[in-house]
Q: What sequence folds into this?
């Protein structure tokens, strides 16, 4: 998804508002949007009416509703099929997280276009219970109706009962039978980074269709202003930004004066079309109101002032991006992972499709790894690892502010003009610090084009902590 701020006048005088891009649904460049993993085509879900005409994107509800009133979150979500309401007469079939306890309204579930955006502070806990009522989805085999929940971008424990995607929450015994919810208790460490995250199902073979059907929501870990005295993430650009599937960006809009309007637009077509759109799709609008705010920037332009700030309150247990980039990495802490598509419908890492019972990589707490990611296909992939952030060394610039990330685009290989096969693989190098003692156990890294992940492009990693004998689950 490429985003750009259209026609944005940059002024040094006032900061008006910040806007967050919503979590993006995965693009599907290589498969039929309506093809189930079993090969069975169906019109539900998702309904074709979701993809034929772009529609306005209303803001999802926030929980808690009021900004600034944060505590532990206790909610129950039911994964279900339902009608997505666009606010008019038209409704589309889709998949939803029904929000029940404690927000059930008048005895009816409160359907909305997207599930709620959760807001929480570090050092709090998300107590989220999940019920699987995906009873009416016409899939085979039965296991395709399994689901679970992933807290994308969170640096939290992957152990059972927390951010564990190796479990499955089975379907209700019948649509009329009550089921105990699957409880998750996700403790957010006090030093956890702030920003935009999201939750979505992650059961291998069904994650793509469930996310595209509508099952995903945002999570904001508040406090992002702590990084800089006045702003969040110093991207000073009007140029398009390429966001691979599952990445997020926080945007600061530096505006001119009251009455100005700024638009966030997508330059890419909506799936399943691969054609260049005739016009940009509007994702968000920022309208400027009120009086201008003036900052003492010491004579610098506001953009220069912002980008020259030193981040504050970073997690002291994590190496900074510049420290990470300068470390010596011995060969036994380097790995190479080749992303392949050997035949239609099969996606591999190092020539293997995913096996839940196989540990592909083992590291210890304290290890710092350098991984070379090779793309051996003519299409994009998007590398993502759970629980951790990494530094992209491929475009590292020691003279500029750098940030860690949890997802990175892997560009296509260079193809031979005659055969359209790869003659030179594309290469992306990342450094991953496994230094957080909370992150032990088995979790996954994978391509975040979920159709590829569902078809095999995922592996298990096991992080052990021998000195502390931390609990590690075997698979
Ligand atoms: Cu991929």
A:
């Amino acid at each position: 998804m490429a985003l750009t701020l259209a026609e944005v006048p940059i002024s040094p005088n006032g900061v008006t508002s910040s806007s967050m891009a919503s979590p993006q649904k995965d693009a599907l460049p290589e498969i039929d949007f309506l093809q189930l993993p079993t090969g069975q085509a169906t019109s539900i879900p998702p309904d074709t009416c979701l993809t034929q005409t772009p529609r306005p994107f209303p803001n999802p509800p926030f929980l808690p509703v009021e900004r600034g009133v944060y505590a532990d979150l206790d909610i129950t979500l039911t994964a279900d099929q339902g009608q997505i309401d666009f606010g008019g007469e038209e409704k589309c079939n889709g998949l939803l997280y029904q929000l029940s306890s404690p927000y059930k309204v008048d005895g009816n579930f409160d359907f909305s276009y997207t599930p709620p955006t959760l807001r929480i502070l570090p050092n709090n806990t998300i107590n989220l219970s999940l019920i699987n009522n995906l009873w009416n989805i016409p899939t085979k085999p039965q296991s395709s109706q399994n689901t679970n929940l992933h807290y994308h971008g969170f640096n939290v424990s992957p152990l059972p009962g927390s951010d564990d995607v190796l479990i499955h929450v089975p379907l209700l015994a019948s649509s009329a039978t009550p089921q105990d919810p699957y409880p998750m208790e996700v403790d957010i460490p006090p030093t956890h980074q702030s920003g935009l995250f999201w939750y979505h199902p992650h059961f291998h073979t069904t994650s793509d269709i469930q996310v595209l059907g509508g099952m995903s929501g945002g999570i904001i870990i508040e406090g992002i202003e702590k990084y800089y005295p006045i702003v969040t993430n110093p991207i000073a650009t009007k140029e398009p930004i390429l966001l691979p599937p599952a990445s997020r960006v926080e945007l600061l809009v530096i505006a001119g004066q009251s009455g100005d309007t700024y638009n966030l637009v997508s330059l890419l077509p909506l799936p399943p079309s691969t054609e260049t759109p005739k016009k940009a799709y509007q994702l968000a609008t920022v309208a400027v109101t009120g009086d201008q705010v003036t900052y003492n920037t010491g004579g610098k332009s506001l953009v220069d002032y912002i980008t020259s700030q030193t981040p504050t309150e970073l997690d002291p247990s994590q190496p900074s991006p510049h420290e990470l980039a300068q470390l010596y990495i011995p060969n036994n802490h380097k790995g190479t992972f080749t992303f392949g598509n050997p035949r239609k419908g099969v996606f591999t890492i190092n020539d293997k499709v995913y096996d839940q019972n196989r540990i592909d990589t083992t590291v210890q707490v304290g290890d710092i790894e350098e991984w070379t990611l090779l793309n051996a296909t003519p299409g994009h992939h998007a590398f993502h690892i759970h629980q951790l952030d990494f530094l992209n060394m491929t475009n590292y610039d020691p003279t500029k502010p750098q940030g860690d990330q949890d997802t990175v685009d892997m560009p296509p290989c260079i193809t031979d003009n005659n055969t359209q096969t790869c003659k030179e693989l594309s290469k992306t190098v990342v450094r991953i610090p496994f230094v957080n003692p909370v992150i032990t156990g088995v979790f996954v890294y994978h391509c975040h084009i979920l159709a590829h992940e569902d078809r095999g492009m995922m592996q298990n990693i096991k992080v052990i902590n021998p000195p502390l004998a931390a609990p590690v689950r075997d698979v």
Remarks:
- The chain has two domains: 2-226, 321-468.
- Residues 1-47, 102-111, 230-236 have pLDDT under 50 and may be disordered.
- Residues 381, 447, 449, 452, 457 surround copper (II) ion (CB under 6 Å).
